[in-house]
Structure formats: C-alpha cells, structure tokens
Amino acid sequence: MQNSDAALPPIQIENSLTRKREPLAAAVPGRIGMYVCGVTVYDHCHLGHAMSAVTFDAIRRYLEFRGYLVDYVYNFTDVDDKILNRAAAEGVDYLTISERYIASFHEDMDRLGVKRASVHPRATRHIPEMLEMIRVLVERDIAYPVDGDVYFDVTRFAGYGKLSGRKVDELVAGARVAADARLRQPADFALWKGAKPGEPGWESPWGKGRPGWHIECSAMSMKYLGKCLDIHGGGLDLVFPHHENEIAQSEALTGRPFARHWMHNGILNLGGEKMSKSIGNVLGLKLLFQKHSPDALRLYLLGSHYRSPQNFEEDSLDRAGKAHQRFANVFERAGRMLAGAGAGAGSPEAQKQLAEQLSRSSAGARSRFHQHMSEDFNSGGALGALFELAAELNRAMQASESDGLGAGLAAAVREARSSLEELLGVLGIGTGLSTPTLEAAAGSGLIPKLIEFLLELRLDAKKSKNFTLADSIRKRLAELGVELKDTATGTSYTTPVR
C-alpha cells in the first residue's frame, strides 16, 4: 500500500459466478494468483484482444499499487485447428505459425504498455499435466474414452452450468461438440482428441492425439497457481463453454472450488457483432498503431467499466487521442512553469488560495480514484477523477500564468502533477512527454501523413513520366521498411512492425 494513501477502501470484485460484489479474497494474504485466458496464436492481434489484455493489465497494476504481489499467468493456445489450417495453407510446421504470432502478440502488447505476465505458458509444453488430469477423470468414470478420443460426462458433475446459468438438458444446441452417436450426452466435451493423419500428436493411454481446448487452461493454471485460483479472468464470450467446462473438469478432479473470483470483460462489437477473426470484422492493432498512439488506445479501452460491452466507433479513438493530448499539455505547462518558479511571484494571498484549492483537489482526486478502482476496478470513473484533477491543475496555472509561481503554489502544482502522473501510470497511461522518436511520430499519425504526401509526389512524377523520381521515392521508402504495392485502384503500403 502506498504511504500517501492511508485508509484506502477495501477492494470489491463483481464475481461472475455468484453474481454478487464480494471483498477480494486470497489464499495467501498480500498475494494474488490471477489467471487470464490468452489468445490462440494463428494471426495478428486485434482491438478485441487488446480489450481483455489491457483490462487485466490495469487490474494487475492496481493490485500491485495497493501492495499485493501478483502471480499473473496468461497462456497461449499454440496447437489448435485454426493454427493447423494456417500451417497447411502456408506449407509450414504448426510451430512456425505459433512462434510467429506469439512474437507478434508480444510486440503489440509491449507497445500498448501491457506488462509481461509472470508466466506465459504454452499448451504444447504442458501435455504431461493434461494427461494426468484426464487419466484420473477416466479412472473415476467422470470421463470416458471412445475411438481414441476422451470426453467429459457433464452429468457426472452436479454443478455443471452454475457459471453460465445453463442446464444440461438445455445444452444440446449449445454444445461445442456436434451431435455424435458415440457420446453419452450431446453436451459432453472433448478432453483429448485422437490425431488425424498429418496432424501433430502426443502419445497417450488412448492413442496418439492432442488436448482439447478446455483442459489446457485447467492444467496450466493449476500448475502455476494451485488448485484454487484467486482470480480467473477472460472475455465474456468465454463464460460458455470454455470457463463452464474448466470449472467442471477442475472441480470434479479436486473436489474444491476452482477459483475464488471469476471476472469477465465485456465484448467489443464492430458493426453490431462481436469483433472476431473468424467473422472477419476486426481492427488489427498494427493498423491502428499507424493512426493512434498506444496511450490513446489504452484511454479508449479503459474509458468505461471493464464489464460493459463497447460498440466501436472511429471517432471514439480520435476523442481518446485528444483527451491524452490534454493530459500531455497540462504536464508540459506544469514543467515549463515550475522551471521558472520564484519565491516572489504573484500576489501571496491569491497564490495561497490557489495552492490550498489545488491541494484539496489533488487529495480529492486521489480519494475518488481509489474509490472507483476499489469498487470492481471502475477505470472509467477513475479516469474521470484524473481528468478533473488535470482541469483544476490547468486552471491554477492559468490563473498565475502572467505572474509566475510562488513557492507555495509551485509546491501545490508539483504535488498535483506528481499525483496525476502516478495515478495515470497505475493505469499504464503515459504523460506524453517522452522524447520524440520515430515510434512516437508513427503513433501520433505523422508518419502516415508523410508517406501519403510522398505517394502523391510519386503519382505526380509518374503522370509527368518522371520515372526516375518515382522509382527513387519507392527505393528510399523501401530502405525505411515501407513497401509499396501498386494496384489498379491505387497504391497501398505496409510499414515495419516496431
């Protein structure tokens, strides 16, 4: 806990399982084990992936700010039908695909300021743990083998459906596995899948095969965090069947609750539908980074409560960028005025009143920030408190702009700026005052504008048959990693990943 924030409110979490707001509970006082379901690595990340990653990154950061040691586990599904299909289409090994997109994930998340997890386990590296879980479930007749596959019998777990609110007899249409005469019930789900010709596989008591999706997360989470997790998180779209099945297989195995708190972030919709690569309505992060800064993206994603669904609009990202610029302007102004502060500046009485008001505003903003974050991590409300503090800090500086800062007001400005910077940092949002770099210029949208300008010059050169200049522009851009592609409808370009 930070020394400047005595008597902070207790942290409350909306538990998706109990549908109640509950005090944060941990197996070990002061230590939180948190598992978040990660991505299936067969393509680049989109804004929907960023929503979950940024949400739980902010939650982790706040818990750490409050003094908790957070053991954070975020997995990769690195063997899956989609990965195998992509590998076959490209004529490469499936590991080539998974390694490529794990690297891409880290590049994108690093740019977004998402801290690396304590552990990033991969499914293919935890096959022994999965096989042992399945073996015990089969031994207890909770799971059953058939033709090289192994299925979980949902009727053998009395609590099945408690997370999603669904009942076994209502799940025929909703079962992930299609109707199959070999199954005891249509809702039974695969723990192990027999390998098909040409597919990768691992030896097991039931033949060569690979794990089902759900058993991966149970095995990996319990290996690193124990039989009962403090927090299990993921997107709302994972409640059923993934998290429901995780609960069933884990609790049937251990006989104890799988997680103390279940947390689910809302879905990001585009065009009225969930953003999904399988549907094709996605906004890739690499494309968004060409137009918007990482801080603007974080502000957008954290601007509402994490459980609320969001309907994406391009204007929202533009507004988030302008909002971040307002923060940056305040920091720039404060730095400039503090550099010129003097003891004799301005009216002492007027500056004293400004300083007292600003100090009260700073303390009030910290209090509201913690109140919002303690009440189920309401980052939207917390950001509102910081916007109010930034506005109050700006008003105090504007009122003393002509006279300069006296010692008392300078101390209050320094304190308010420090609080603002610290609490924005808790949410992983920067001040915007870092030294300008090529990456920062790309994030601000400057580089795409310069490239478009050069493309216009190149087009004019081609129209006037100045092919030497047109080729020179293409060559110089290629040296910078910008590849041009001429088509019948115009010229497009790709920029290097940074």
Helix-strand blueprint:
Blueprint: E1 12-15, E2 20-23, E3 31-36, H1 47-65, E4 69-74, H2 81-90, H3 94-112, H4 127-139, E5 143-146, E6 149-152, E7 189-194, E8 209-211, H5 213-225, E9 229-235, H6 239-254, E10 259-265, E11 268-270, E12 273-274, H7 285-289, H8 294-301, E13 310-311, H9 314-339, H10 348-374, H11 379-399, H12 407-426, H13 438-444, H14 446-463, H15 467-479, E14 483-487, E15 490-494
Parallel strand pairs: 3-4, 3-9, 9-10, 11-13
Antiparallel strand pairs: 1-2, 5-6, 6-7, 7-8, 11-12, 14-15
Helix pairs in contact: 2-3, 4-5, 5-6, 8-9, 9-11, 9-12, 10-11, 10-12, 11-12, 14-15
CATH topology (fold) name of the largest domain: Rossmann fold
Roughly how many Å apart are the termini?
35 Å
Q: Mind telling me which CATH architecture of the largest domain this is? A: 3-Layer(aba) Sandwich
In terms of per-residue confidence, which ranges show pLDDT below 50 for 5 or more consecutive residues? 434-444
CATH homologous superfamily assignment of the largest domain: HUPs
Highest-level CATH class of the largest domain: Alpha Beta
Q: Would you count the extended β strands for me?
A: 15
Averaging pLDDT over every residue, what do you get? Answer: 89
Q: Summarize the helix and strand pattern as letters.
A: EEEHEHHHEEEEHEHEEEHHEHHHHHHHEE
Individual helix count? 15
Give the biggest beta sheet.
4 strands, parallel
Name the helicity range.
Answer: 40-55%
Largest sheet: spatial strand order: 4-3-9-10
Shape: flat
